């Protein structure tokens, strides 16, 4: 586990974004942890979060020309990541996001920000069903650009509808890597090294039951 991933978990727990207990997910599964990215809701939290996203993207080695954040959660995330890339890594890259509804006046269209071009990294909070990624890929492809990767905060590494995880399904469908700041595997390791937050055994048991093959 990278040092920045340990810092990310400490940050997420301290912000109340990552909680431990018993939570019923949308899937109906009872999870011993819950990750609510909507609670990265202050300037300081968003600034730090952007730093983690940028670090993960740079460490991945993926070549890219710009960033794209799907509405709505991806909008602040893509801006924060672009700021961190410029401020912490010396890379001033353009970014864009979309509107839920097309604008029929002014500049019109659904894309706001830099024109979609070249190799584009989609920045989002998590991947659930992959529908958001498909929508982003459609917008990027329609503009003549190429989807380069998908960048998210946490990879739950659990099975979707089949044996593969939602992340693996996205990778297979689009042929691009999904880069996560951290995953369930690193969370188990983090708790094994620092059990004051929750017993790693609970997370390990959940992973054994629902983890992707």
Oligomer: single chain
User: So what's the overall shape?
Assistant: globular
| SSE string, helices as H and strands as E | HEEHEHEEEHEHEHH
The assigned structural class equals alpha/beta
Q: Supply Rg.
A: 17 Å
Quote the average pLDDT.
89
Largest sheet at a glance? 6 strands, mixed
Strand residue percentage: 15-25%
Helix content: 40-55%
Termini separation comes to 20 Å
Q: Give the total of beta strands.
A: 8
Low-confidence stretches: none
- Placed side by side, the strands forming the largest sheet appear as 5-4-3-6-7-8
Question: Helical element count?
Answer: 7
Written description of the protein model:
The chain starts with a helix and ends with a helix. Helix 1 (3-14) packs antiparallel against helix 2. The protein has 213 residues and is an alpha/beta fold. The mean pLDDT is 89. It has helices at 3-14, 43-60, 74-89, 131-142, 166-174, 184-193, 200-210, and strands at 18-24, 30-35, 66-69, 95-103, 109-113, 119-123, 146-155, 178-183. The chain has seven helices and eight strands; from the N terminus they run H-E-E-H-E-H-E-E-E-H-E-H-E-H-H. Strands 5-4-3-6-7-8 form a six-stranded mixed sheet, sandwiched between helices. The relative contact order is 0.15. Helix content is 41%, strand content 24%.
